[in-house]
Amino acid sequence: MIQASGLHKSYGETVALDGVDLHVREGEIYGVLGRSGAGKSTLLRCVNLLERPGRGTVTVAGQELTALRSGELNHARRRIGMIHQHFALLSSRTVAANVAFPLEVMGVARAERERRVAELLDLVGLGGRGGDRPHQLSGGQKQRVGIARALAGDPAVLLSDEATSALDPATTRSILDLLKRLNAELGLTILLITHEMNVVKSVCDSVAIMAGGRIEESGSIAGLIRTPGSRLTREIFPLPEPAPAGSVTLTFTGDPQRPVVSEVVREFDVEVSILGGSIEDLAGGAVGRLRVALTGEAAPALAYLRERGLLVEVAR
Amino acid sequence: MTWDEMAPLLWESTWQTALMVGWSTVFTVLFGLPIGVALVVFDRGGLRPLPVLKSVLGVIVNVGRSLPFIVLMIAIIPFTRLVVGTTIGTAAVVVPLTVGAVPFFARLVETALREVGSDVVQAAQAMGASRTAIVRKVLLPEAMPGLVAGLTVTVVALIGYSAMAGTIGGGGLGDLAVRYGYQRFETLLMIVTVVLLVVIVQLIQSLGDAVARRLSHSK
Ligand SMILES: Nc1ncnc2c1ncn2[C@@H]1O[C@H](COP(=O)(O)OP(=O)(O)OP(=O)(O)O)[C@@H](O)[C@H]1O
Ligand SMILES: [Mg+2]
């Protein structure tokens, strides 16, 4: 749905993007993670060409945006919704008129606009608040208006730059739930930037981790969790790094309740001491990660664990 | 001089001032607003960056701003004659008043428009709004409280200019004060004129503030 290849962008001496490839599949929620200055916002703004990349191409919903002229680009942008960290609502307009803005831009007739706006406000749980001014709303409600406005053009893609960073945890939760619902009900593809691991854990299907203008790691969360040495896994699970030499780190997906460890102790001549571990609820199901030290006949025990589908990483 | 003698004079002069200021306000907005918008839109990092054009415009505006009104008024007499065919009378005064106020107002417009957050402008761009739509539907409405405040300051400045312009034949309260108060030592008339000017300026300022406050929805 979004295909970016070889994106370069620099501001004078600063290289914000240094050869980024991004592939977001239709209907998925894709998270971009990274420290401040990694180039996340620049990447997102390149997707709808608010920022023109120095090199590289961007294709959204089958249309190569980098090849369009400015009038055509304005047209294409109407099918790409965007929400913002500080909401970016027009204070001179009511809530309803804010949501109507993109429809006005598209030249939708008044009666149809009013119908759509009412529908959209209902969809985001703000039915009846259309006459309010943005400053009368809470942060979470403002972001709902932002979302309703972003959906007005019936977009295929929604871009979100830290849309929950200005919100408290409970409100963040409710906004994420809304995004998830829109993803499921409308089949909306969502590309979101965040620095909160929680956001990634609770909604994302795929992620890219950025640093220094490059993507260091990307793919589906389930796939990355199964990849040895994955940064994402290390970021999600709070275990001390680096792992002490000789320790074994087990990552298990599926049913974390399964007593694999006690099975190993029963079946093999090993002692297991637990060094640390946790279970995290991810969008695709629960995942556990456990660090243990094995004494005794470790090799057959580890083979057994691998056979059971666990990812086994032995630190040296 | 008695009240009965003063009243018609005051009335006529107030009316002349109102005419001069009113018409020049209309023309100032007509020319100053687009110039102010252009200063923002053509700026580096603006909606349509044309830095050279913006610099030229900026220099012209600065020249206009740096000339004292009384000098400008005399310097543009040939231009005034070209536009209205005469250099005396109320209509003739509207020309230098407008020329003097346009750069002033344009800068205030520029400042007000710059107050509009870049995030809302970008949000509008992301929604596929054309540049014209962004100016008309985002920049101007969002800057409205600032624009009204700027207009208020401009009208007050125009009242000041009009007192000077009055002496070249436009009449008005300033002219009245000079002719009677200064040249004929009619102290009472002088005082009444001053009070009247203060009251008018005060009224305009309060009105402008009230409108700006009404329009301001940010907090
Ligand atoms: N308009 C700009 N002009 C100059 N430099 C810029 C501009 N925008 C971004 N940069 C630089 O590009 C780099 C990447 O910035 P970007 O905003 O994409 O980072 P980010 O990952 O979104 O960071 P954050 O988490 O703080 O939002 C930074 O070094 C930043 O200083
Ligand atoms: Mg950013």
From TrEMBL, chain A:
One of its GO biological process terms is: amino acid transport
GO CC annotations, alphabetized? plasma membrane
The organism's superkingdom is given as: Bacteria
Alphabetically list the UniProt keywords: Amino-acid transport, ATP-binding, Cell membrane, Membrane, Nucleotide-binding, Translocase, Transport
* Keyword Cell membrane recorded: yes
Q: Does the keyword Transport apply?
A: yes
One Pfam entry name: ABC_tran
SUPFAM superfamilies reported in the protein's UniProt record: ACT-like, P-loop containing nucleoside triphosphate hydrolases
Q: Which residues form the ABC transporter domain?
A: 2-237
Gene Ontology terms for molecular function = ATP binding; ATP hydrolysis activity
Q: What does this protein do?
A: Part of the ABC transporter FtsEX involved in cellular division. Has ATPase activity.
- Report quaternary structure and partners: Homodimer. Forms a membrane-associated complex with FtsX.
Family, according to the entry, reads as follows: Belongs to the ABC transporter superfamily.
Recorded protein name is Methionine import ATP-binding protein MetN
Give the species this sequence originates from: Nonomuraea cavernae
Organism classification, top ranks? Bacteria, Bacillati, Actinomycetota, Actinomycetes, Streptosporangiales
The primary gene name is: metN
Automatic annotation (TrEMBL), chain B:
**Short name of one Pfam family:** BPD_transp_1
Entry membrane topology: Multi-pass membrane protein
Recite the UniProt keywords alphabetically: Cell membrane, Membrane, Transmembrane, Transmembrane helix, Transport
Query: Any idea what this protein is called?
Result: Metal ABC transporter permease
Please name the PROSITE patterns in this protein's record. ABC_TM1
Q: Name one GO biological process term.
A: D-methionine transmembrane transport
Q: What does UniProt list as this organism's lineage?
A: Bacteria, Bacillati, Actinomycetota, Actinomycetes, Streptosporangiales
> SUPFAM superfamilies given for it?
MetI-like (SSF161098)
- List locations, semicolon-separated: Cell membrane
According to its UniProt record, which protein family does this protein belong to?
Answer: Belongs to the binding-protein-dependent transport system permease family. CysTW subfamily.
- The organism of origin for this protein: Nonomuraea cavernae
Which PANTHER family does the record match to this protein? Answer: ABC TRANSPORTER PERMEASE, D-METHIONINE TRANSPORT SYSTEM PERMEASE PROTEIN METI-RELATED
Gene Ontology CC annotations of this record? plasma membrane
Q: What are the ABC transmembrane type-1 domain coordinates in residue numbering?
A: 14-205
Annotated transmembrane regions: 20-43, 55-77, 83-106, 146-168, 188-212
